[in-house]
């Protein structure tokens, strides 16, 4: 039976599995958005396309070959929810527009408090945390250690694809 307050998902990657507990109480729109993409199979076969050692692993928007996927509309930034960008948390990636997040997310490889909400301003919004890795932290750590380079004009791209094979809703 699905836990509506803290649903859980399994990210099956080419380097192993991670289980993430999502916080639907503190980030309801963000969690609903992530689960919609997961139910549609949107994430299946995408790659972690941006990995910065000691910082984060970003995925959810590109297929192998750095082919960007078309997304649904942007969601409201819920970074003012009190959750912090601590090691092992999952947060929404976005552009410089605070309310531009769609499908891309990142897993913090370290405590990144400079990404936390500070104020409702362009530079103060931060990045919305909406869950935490509860099993498979070693997989996130392994992803964070892969060799990276440039590809198709993007930097910090893993030399060998780290594939997000499937996102399963497990509870």
Automatic annotation (TrEMBL):
Transmembrane segments: none annotated. The keyword NAD does not apply. One of its GO terms (molecular function) is peptidyl-prolyl cis-trans isomerase activity. SUPFAM superfamilies: Cyclophilin-like (SSF50891). Gene3D superfamilies: Cyclophilin-like. One of its GO terms (biological process) is protein folding. It catalyses: [protein]-peptidylproline (omega=180) = [protein]-peptidylproline (omega=0). Its EC number is 5.2.1.8. PPIases accelerate the folding of proteins. It catalyzes the cis-trans isomerization of proline imidic peptide bonds in oligopeptides. Keywords: Isomerase, Rotamase. Residues 13-169 form the PPIase cyclophilin-type domain. The keyword Transferase does not apply. This is Peptidyl-prolyl cis-trans isomerase. Belongs to the cyclophilin-type PPIase family.
């Amino acid at each position: 039976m699905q836990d509506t307050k803290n649903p859980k998902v399994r990210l099956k990657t080419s380097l192993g599995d991670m289980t993430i507990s999502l916080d639907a109480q503190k980030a309801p729109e963000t969690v609903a958005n992530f689960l919609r993409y997961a139910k549609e199979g949107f994430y299946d076969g995408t790659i972690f396309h941006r990995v910065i050692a000691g910082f984060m692993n970003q995925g959810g928007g590109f297929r192998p070959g750095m082919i960007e996927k078309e997304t649904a509309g942007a969601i409201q930034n819920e970074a003012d929810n009190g959750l912090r960008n601590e090691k092992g948390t999952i947060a929404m990636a976005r552009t410089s527009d605070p309310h531009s997040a769609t499908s891309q997310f990142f897993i913090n490889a370290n405590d990144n408090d400079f990404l936390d909400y500070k104020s409702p301003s362009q530079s103060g919004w931060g990045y919305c945390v909406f869950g935490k890795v509860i099993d498979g932290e070693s997989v996130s750590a392994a992803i964070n250690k892969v060799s990276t380079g440039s590809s198709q004009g993007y930097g910090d791209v893993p030399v060998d694809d780290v594939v997000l094979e499937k996102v399963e809703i497990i509870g």
